[in-house]
Amino acid sequence: MRRLAGKILRYAAAYTATALLAAFVTVRLAARGSTVTVPKLASMDQKQVEVELKRLGLEVAIVGEEHSEEVSAGGIISQSPAAGTRVKSGRRIKVTISRGSDIQVMPQLTDIRLEEAEFLLRQLGLEVDLLSNTPSSVPRGTVLAQDPSPGTRVVRSRPVRLLLSEGPVPATEAVPRVTGLTTRDALLRLRQAGLRISDVAYETTSLYAEGSVFAQDPPGGFRATAGEEVRLKAARSGSAGLERYVSFNYVVPQGPARRVRVVVVDEGGSREVSNEIEEGGSILRLSTRVRGQAVAQFYIGGSMLEERAI
To answer: CA 267, CA 212: separation in Å to the nearest integer?
Structure first.
């Protein structure tokens, strides 16, 4: 009896072990061979896709982004494998994400400043490709025309061309003819015409009267804008006039420290008497020798702010 019981127990243990092994192999094979159906992802955004694929035991792999006129930004344009395909659990599903429409409606850019136009275009992903300028009665830098025209549907890669105003054409006047006049009268005539005398160069010659102007640039009759510079040549056989000593002051306009340049023009020519960085509101006390009639010119930042007789 004992031998029979032992055989029965051995057979039972062997059967149990075989059954467990078979069950384990079956489970492993079933796990390896489990499949799921790939869902349709086109109607979902990226977050929804991640949630849905994770629920099914699948993974997502973003393989690119493209512009699309049909799919809004963040939506799925395409997928691989296609919807309805049976795949093994753990499979990566490749998707392409939409960057939204590449088509923009061109805004109205005319009658605004270039800086504003560029800001509006940047907001739409567009850029200015070419700028042209032309004189106009509107302020400098204002957009006069645009291509493409307002309301046109364009892709982001389309260049935008703008025509800008250069501002009004400066008014011009005929330059007075001052040759033959004395240096004193020539300086007076040119200042009355709103012109600046940048240089008076004296040359020793017996062909012209002492102190008379025999050449000017620009010549008399030429058109010039207000503030334009004129250069003169005058005759000298000896002294061009009485030499004297002058002192004068200049109050620097309020503001940050700037370079102030002072030039004196007299019957002996022109010369720089000061060129320093000065604080706003400071007073320059200057003195120099001049010959005959003379003016002092005061420059800040390269522009002449004042000219006065001294």
So the answer is: 10
